[in-house]
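Thread: quick sanity check before group meeting

JM: Hey all, I'm pulling together slides for Thursday and realized we never actually wrote out the predicted structure for the chain we discussed last week. Dropping the sequence here so it's in one place. If anyone has concerns about the input, flag it before I start.
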Amino acid sequence: MKQNFNIAIIGLGQIGNYLFNELKIKKKDIEIKTGKKINVVAISAKNKNKKRKFKINKKIFFKNPIDIIKNKKIDILFEVIGSSDGISKKIVETALKNKIHVITPNKALISKHGDYLSSLAEKNKVNLEFEAAVAGGIPIIRTIKEGLATNKINKIYGILNGTCNYILSQMEKTKDNFSNVLKNAQLLGYAEPVNPKLDLNGYDALAKVKILSALAFNKKISKSNNLMEGIERIEAKDFEIVDRLNLRIKLLGITEIIENKLFERVHPCLVDKNSYIGNVSDVMNAVILEGDPIGQSVLQGEGAGPGPTSSALMSDLLSILRGNTKNPFGIASKKRTFSSPYNSDNYLNSLYLRIEVKDKPGVLSSITNILAKYKISVQRLIQIPDNKKKTASIVIITHKTKEINSKKCLASFKNNKNILKDPVLLRLF
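JM (edit): ok, ran it. Output follows.
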């Protein structure tokens, strides 16, 4: 059995830097725990001269990461660049074809090309590990693949994006508006400084949901259109209103099997203040699994940042060093099939609707008439007037209705001249 493992790190951003130092600091500990010796023999980054906490050894630096595979004997490669295509895909693909184990936190890459890359790994009898791709330091991937391997999982949901959770938590605490809280999140490093869109619009969380679905339900990664909404349209007044209702706003990623079909979605939800998920705040992530015979299982921890991500990367490393060669998605690629997507139009859910209107007679009745037209029944109604502006906020909590009904209703609202802007719609969870 092999005793010495040569390691390459591709990408020296925040995570790559942290990982490099961790490998240096914890080298002896890793070797004691695994009985194997490790050596970082190659690194690659865009900018060799960028200021870092360590000096780059010229002998192990490669500008072109592909040259590492050509010129060095590599056993394990860390890809920590982060894009779904381009050099990220090329280096992982090349490594697997050359029988090199790959470890990556790249959820964009795995959610888009995971099926193809996993088949390459299986063909070449090496590992493709991606524990850090979902929920940072929370060991959710290994929990599903190993700890709960004999359970039938029916549903997974949780807070999968720390940026959104921080923004929503701060908006609730400070009563400040979205743009100000976002700026603060960017200053603290919780949100991307230039373009945080992929976090805010739900795309990041949905990529993680797709990975969890494939693992939990033994399926190929879903290619279907999904229900995806972000948090950009939520305003400070929404937090004041839902507080009266003993509810909180959380961006949830949810995947479940309904009528033998796969239903994946990411959107803001109203959750009970006293619920477990309602008390996960700031940058924390939480994942809840429902299965048989385990029942409900909960995992919580930091979902992002160099420390938690590096922790997950190191766990993948130790798994490989211990000789745990396994299928990336738990079962062989040829045994995984595509799941038929559930039609989201049929999804039943209670709604929170906040509608900004002109405060004059007949407006409320015109709105309730539209709701009735689309078979949406009102459970609770709150009217908050603004006498200075001669406007009002009408807040409606509905009984359960089909998603298609809410779509048609919102479209009809656009023709109502007394409605001042697009309503805010949140689903109760």
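AS: nice. Residues 107-123 form the longest helix (17 residues). The radius of gyration is 24 Å.
JM: adding both to the slides.
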